[in-house]
């Protein structure tokens, strides 16, 4: 049966595609409208506060002043932002990979689990500001210490989320695995990993938010460049508008990474229904 002789001809198919695209665009606009309006209201309130209270720029610059810095010094700011972004992305990738690997090893071997679980908990319990100077002392002021700091910050979220997902198998799937007499590896590959993917997706979303923070903490303690380096230098020179410009770039970085993580997790868990 040709398309023309089917229930929908070419014109009807084009209309259906256009209607679906229009609905998708409208849905995206509705999702973006609330945060954009909220941000606009906050910026207007911030600017009014600065102007009505006549606050000096070194105390609290207005959004207009911060925007002017972003335009005038964009090359300088973007050059340092690339350093922070590099450490963030590498830390995110290594942290997610390490968390997935450790969670799998902990589930496969109870003996290794008993040995690794306290180490995993300690990585989360130790204050990151206490670890950062040691990492800088060991790894230097370059990129390595920032990547390791980002890994340490997000490692626990990914490991704990994925490990809990591996342990909490649906009773029906567990009965099905026993019914087919699946081996431990078959049970892991066919039942537990697919069942644990939503939990892993949650861990990845959390990691996307905290990875930039880990990189910034590493830069804050010791670095030759990066957004945190700009914040420290501008704060020491009372250039508060430059510091806020660096913070604005960091906020954009966090939101962008979270957006990419959402898209990645939708590919990993296409069957999960979200509101």
Which secondary structure elements does this structure contain, and how are they paired or packed?
Elements: H1 10-53, H2 63-72, H3 74-108, H4 110-125, H5 128-139, H6 143-167, H7 171-179, H8 184-221, H9 227-236, H10 240-268
Helix pairs in contact: 2-10, 3-4, 3-6, 3-8, 3-9, 3-10, 4-6, 5-6, 5-8, 6-8, 8-9, 8-10, 9-10
Number of helices: 10
Give the strand content. under 5%
Write the H/E string, N to C.
HHHHHHHHHH
How many β-strand runs? 0
Mean pLDDT: 84
Low-pLDDT stretches: 1-6
Structural category: mainly alpha
Rounded to the nearest angstrom, the radius of gyration is 24 Å
Largest sheet: none
- From the N-terminal CA to the C-terminal CA, the straight-line distance is 39 Å
Description:
The protein has about 280 residues and is mostly helical. The chain contains 10 helices and no strands. The relative contact order is 0.12. Mean pLDDT is about 85; it is low at about 1-5.
């Amino acid at each position: 049966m040709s398309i023309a002789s089917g229930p929908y001809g070419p014109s009807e198919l084009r209309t259906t595609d256009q209607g679906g695209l229009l609905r998708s665009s409208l849905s995206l606009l509705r999702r973006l409208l609330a945060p954009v309006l909220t941000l606009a209201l906050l910026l207007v309130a911030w600017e009014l506060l600065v102007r009505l209270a006549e606050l000096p720029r070194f105390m609290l610059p207005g959004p207009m002043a911060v925007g002017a810095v972003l335009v005038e010094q964009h090359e300088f700011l973007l050059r340092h932002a690339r350093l922070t972004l590099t450490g963030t992305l590498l830390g995110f990738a290594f942290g997610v990979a390490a968390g997935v690997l450790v969670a799998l090893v902990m589930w496969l071997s109870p003996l290794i689990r008993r040995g690794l679980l306290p180490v995993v908990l300690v990585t989360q319990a130790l204050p990151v500001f206490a670890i950062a100077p040691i990492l800088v002392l060991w790894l230097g002021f370059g990129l390595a210490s920032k990547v390791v700091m980002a890994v340490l910050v997000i490692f626990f979220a990914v490991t704990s989320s994925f490990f809990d997902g591996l342990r909490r198998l649906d009773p029906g799937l567990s009965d099905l695995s026993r019914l087919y007499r699946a081996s431990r590896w078959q049970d892991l590959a066919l039942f537990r990993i697919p069942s644990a993917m939503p939990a892993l997706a949650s861990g990845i979303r959390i990691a996307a938010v905290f990875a930039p923070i880990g990189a910034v903490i590493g830069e804050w303690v010791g670095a030759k460049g990066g957004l945190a380096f700009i914040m420290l230098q501008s704060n020491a020179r009372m250039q508060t508008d430059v510091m806020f410009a660096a913070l604005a770039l960091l906020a954009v970085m966090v939101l962008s990474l979270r957006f990419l993580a959402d898209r990645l997790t939708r590919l990993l868990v296409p069957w999960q229904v979200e509101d």
